[in-house]
Amino acid sequence: MSIDSLPQPFQHLLTTASPRHHRPITIEDVEYRHGETPLRGFLVEPEGGSSKAVLVFHAWMGPGPYVEARARMIAGLGYTVLAGDVYGDGVRPTTVDEMRAESQKYYADLPLMRGRAQAAFDVLTARGFAPEDILVIGYCFGGTVALEHARTGQRSAGVVSFHGRLLAQDPPQADRIAAPLLILTGGSDPIAPDEDVKAFADELRANPAVDWQISVYSGALHAFTVPGDMYHEKADARSWKAFVDFADEVAPLG
């Protein structure tokens, strides 16, 4: 499909990607529910389908052009990609105040956040993907959603957070984590300051069985992969490579 419908900054992410990201794809809306709440995400399929899937969660603005660009890039690698909807069908904040207010509902109610994540995960298992063949990732708010989903104990191929908020739990809940974690964070991110990174790592250390790694990128602010004022080209490139290498390890394509 054409990428012309994407705003130029997000087109740039795709046009500068390696040839491996340029496989033909199809995109379709996916309607599903969490309890009584209707949700609307979208599915991106590489030509010929895939044996492995990636569930990607959006930043605080909800599903939109940025997560579509990333979903296209991941499908270009050869994975089926579901862009999940945490907020609900039609809930698409447009101002910073609206985004902050909407995302805060879920930070204040982690069981709700985790439930919305599980509802999206269940869409992929209902389509025939085994849990261990699904990689769960997210950007900003979505990175936090992905990590909270790991705390439910759901098995998956792995979990990746790009510049997500790191919420350490007291008492620790690392004993519930059943998937390897890759945490990609900015060295100058005020949303995930050094003390939060350390507290999160300390929680993970409470369970030696958890397979985890944290990469910190010098000079990178919050949202360092999103074109705009906080974009950090080197951190974006390095974190994307870290993700691709992790995906090749935990969810290799045949």
Task: Describe the structure concisely for a colleague.
With 254 residues, the chain is of the alpha/beta class. The chain contains 7 helices and 8 strands; from the N terminus they run αβββαβααβαββαβα.
In words, what does this structure look like?
This protein has 254 residues and is α/β, with parallel strands linked by helices. The chain has one domain: Rossmann fold (3-Layer(aba) Sandwich). Helices cover 35% and strands 21% of the residues. The protein is built from seven helices and eight strands, in the order αβββαβααβαββαβα. Strands 1-2-4-3-5-6-7-8 form an eight-stranded mixed β-sheet, sandwiched between helices. The longest helix has 18 residues.
Number of helices: 7
At the fourth level of CATH, the homologous superfamily is: Alpha/Beta hydrolase fold, catalytic domain
Order of helices and strands: HEEEHEHHEHEEHEH
- Average pLDDT value? 93
Characterize the largest beta sheet: strand count, sense, and whether it forms a barrel: 8 strands, mixed
Topology diagram in text:
Layout (H helix, E strand, L loop, with lengths): L7 H8 L9 E10 L2 E10 L6 E5 L7 H13 L2 E5 L11 H12 L2 H17 L7 E6 L1 H10 L7 E5 L18 E6 L7 H12 L6 E6 L15 H18 L4
Parallel strand pairs: 3-4, 3-5, 5-6, 6-7, 7-8
Antiparallel strand pairs: 1-2, 2-4
Attribute tags:
8-stranded mixed sheet, 254 residues, Rossmann fold
